[in-house]
TrEMBL record:
Lineage: Eukaryota, Viridiplantae, Streptophyta, Embryophyta, Tracheophyta
GO cellular component: cytosol; mitochondrion
Protein's recorded name: Folylpolyglutamate synthase
Family: Belongs to the folylpolyglutamate synthase family.
EC number: 6.3.2.17
Protein task: Catalyzes conversion of folates to polyglutamate derivatives allowing concentration of folate compounds in the cell and the intracellular retention of these cofactors, which are important substrates for most of the folate-dependent enzymes that are involved in one-carbon transfer reactions involved in purine, pyrimidine and amino acid synthesis.
Reactions mediated catalytically: (6S)-5,6,7,8-tetrahydrofolyl-(gamma-L-Glu)(n) + L-glutamate + ATP = (6S)-5,6,7,8-tetrahydrofolyl-(gamma-L-Glu)(n+1) + ADP + phosphate + H(+)
Pathway: Cofactor biosynthesis; tetrahydrofolylpolyglutamate biosynthesis
Binding site for ATP: R381, D403
Keywords attached to this entry: ATP-binding, Ligase, Magnesium, Metal-binding, Nucleotide-binding, One-carbon metabolism
Cofactors named for this entry: a monovalent cation
Encoding gene, per UniProt annotation: LOC104224478
Organism of origin: Nicotiana sylvestris
A GO BP entry: one-carbon metabolic process
Length: 610
């Protein structure tokens, strides 16, 4: 019997009854597929499943609501009817509020309200029974969760994964068995939760805010779908995060810590670490990765207070992958993979699926672990996507390099990855692995590598496409990125600064048309970049107001151009400018690094996918 891509021998155990009086299912790894070392240690590895097969949704329907105009207002006949999914996005958008710290200064943000919401959805018992892996961190927590989910899915478990943010579609946040939840199921669970909140909330307990609603929706989905394991990525911080309502997770993890969201989490690494350690629960084991001393000291103090056994997971040794490569690109992913292995091993032991922590003494990983690490996939992190329109026209070579780096430390990592990738060295570099799967556009990394080989004789030009949130300090981000790239011999011909589409639009997939956008932030980024470039060249820093070029090209209408940069009023105009540049020089090779914001990465992917 094939379950979760792993073959098992199936045997009913009629004497083993779960709490809901349904028979347990015991699966033993087939000796044909079982790694020799795993067989030696476990004789054989036996995985016990107590949940029944995943149910089909019944009693739900994807309903189209007829929106009635408010009293005294007429129906707008000019508006096209919304699809059921668009209507759900409209309702979800109504929950978006300005992010603020969850403390007593804001009634709607009181952490305790989450437990009222859980009661409204009747999720108290389902959450208590959920076998949760909870992961916080500044960098790499999403990648760690993806590795963890992929490993356990390849071990045959039914998995639920909740991550944030989404890049293109909100359904990306909810994965069942490695796949985004389908639209039909999403709508069914969405309206079930939304309507119940509408009926039961009040002035004292208002509607949950955007992220809290999504986290609660994840709990509802995972409970109803009866997943064997729920992997939860913290949205922001840890202590007051909506995912932290889980009172007894199986194991917790903290990925690499750094400076981010300081306006909420604190200005020192110690303060940030204290917020992240808020997911620790008394007596529940936790793992972290090598951290700066200031952060590690706080993690250890918090762990000691709660009698938490905190262990540092070593980065994965590439030699343990049996000649394969990690599914996620980048040297830093070996740190995240090491943390994921520790989380999975402990989860298997503490849930009774193995008797010992068998990974501690291993020199090779079990086949299921290797396959899980090699097939893990996550959009927007070290992702390479050729432009589909330019490829279809056979009019040149335009490739986008996506990485959602948005902290000073991650800028260094992003720059190193990009520099190696554009030189075609990433597939030879012994710490890097090619993603052998296909990305969302259907272009495999093998085809990208072939494209690198075919284009190796072309002259190459690098552009930077950048934006970041105004709460982040571009004086920290842009210098780190520029200097790290320069250290690897990469210099951008121009930096392009654009507003994020998603900042100005509700949740959904529509792109802007003629919206007026304030570009003052992008012009600030441009001034910083121009000053950096002139400083690198040893020139006097100029006032960028004095060096704007005259713009005459219609495609650049509204753009503000400097010697080394451009500000575009919208992302589609910037993409069109890049495509026109390629068409004018078909013998050239153009490589665009998209970074600074995961929202920007998602917005560009929407356009490139068209």
């Amino acid at each position: 019997m094939e379950i979760g891509r792993t073959n098992f021998n199936y045997t009913f155990c009629p004497l083993a009854q779960s709490s809901n009086h349904q028979p347990s299912r015991i699966f033993s790894l087939s000796s044909y597929h079982q790694p020799p070392l795993l067989s030696t240690l476990l004789h054989p590895l036996t995985l016990r499943f107590t949940s029944p097969p995943p149910p089909q949704i019944s009693g739900f329907s994807s309903r189209v609501r007829i929106k009635m105009s408010q009293a005294g207002e007429g129906k707008d006949e000019t508006k096209p009817a919304m699809s059921p999914y668009e209507e759900a996005m409209e309702a979800l958008s109504s929950l978006i509020t300005k992010r603020s710290r969850a403390d007593k200064s804001n009634k709607g943000d009181k952490f305790e309200l989450l437990f009222d919401y859980i009661k409204m959805l009747e999720l108290e018992e389902p959450i208590k029974k959920m076998k949760v892996i909870h992961v916080a961190g500044t960098k790499g927590k999403g990648s760690t969760c993806v590795f963890t989910e992929s490993i356990l899915r390849n071990c045959g478990f039914r998995t639920g994964l909740f991550t944030s943010p989404h890049l293109i579609d909100v359904r990306e946040r909810f994965r069942l068995d490695g796949m985004d939840i389908c639209e039909e199921k999403f709508l069914a669970y969405f309206w079930w939760c939304f309507d119940r909140f509408k009926e039961r909330t009040s002035d004292e307990v208002p509607m949950p805010t955007y992220f809290r609603f999504l986290a609660l929706l994840a709990f509802k989905i995972f409970a109803a779908e009866q997943v064997d394991v729920a992997i939860l990525e913290v949205g922001l911080g840890g202590k007051y995060d909506a995912t932290n309502v889980v009172e007894n997770p199986v194991v917790c993890g903290v990925s690499s810590l750094g400076y981010d969201h300081m306006e909420i989490l604190g200005n020192t690494l110690g303060q940030i670490a204290g917020e992240k350690a808020g997911i620790f629960k008394r007596g529940v084991p936790a793992f972290t990765v090598p951290q700066p001393d200031e952060a590690m000291l706080v993690l250890e103090e918090k762990a000691s207070e709660l009698d938490v056994h905190l262990e540092v997971a070593a980065p994965l040794d590439a030699n343990m992958l049996s000649g394969l490569h990690l599914g996620l690109e980048g040297e830093h992913q070996y740190i995240n993979a090491g943390l994921a292995i520790a989380l999975c091993s402990t989860w298997l032991q503490r849930t009774g699926h193995v008797e010992i922590n068998y990974l501690k003494e291993m020199t090779n990983l079990p086949e299921q672990f290797v396959k899980g690490l090699a097939t893990a996939a996550l959009q927007g992190r070290a992702q390479i996507v050729p432009d589909q329109l330019i490829e279809s026209e056979s009019s040149g070579d335009l490739v986008f390099y996506f990485d959602g780096a948005h902290s000073p430390e991650s800028m260094d990592v992003c720059a190193k990855w990009f520099s190696l990738a554009i030189q075609g060295d990433y597939k030879q570099h012994n710490s890097y692995g090619s993603n052998r799967g296909h990305n969302e556009l259907g272009a495999s990394h093998d085809s990208v590598e072939m494209g690198h080989h075919e284009a190796s004789k072309k002259s190459s030009t690098q552009f930077l496409l950048f934006n970041c949130m105004s709460v982040r300090d571009p004086q920290l981000l842009l210098p780190r990125l520029m200097r790290a790239c320069a250290n690897h011999g990469v210099h951008f011909q121009k930096a392009l600064f654009v507003p994020n589409v998603s900042v100005y639009y509700k949740v959904g997939t529509s792109m802007p048309t003629d919206t007026q956008v304030d570009l003052s932030w992008q012009l600030t980024l441009q001034r910083i970049w121009e000053n950096l470039v002139h400083g690198e060249k040893g020139n006097d820093v100029k006032n960028t107001d004095q060096i704007y070029e005259e713009v005459t090209d219609d495609a650049e209408k509204g753009a503000r151009s400097c010697e080394n940069s451009k500000v575009f009023p919208s992302l589609p105009i910037a993409i069109n400018w890049l495509r026109d540049t390629v068409r004018k020089n078909r013998s050239g090779r153009y490589q665009v690094l998209v970074t600074g914001s995961l929202h920007l990465v998602g917005d560009v992917l929407k356009l490139v996918k068209k």
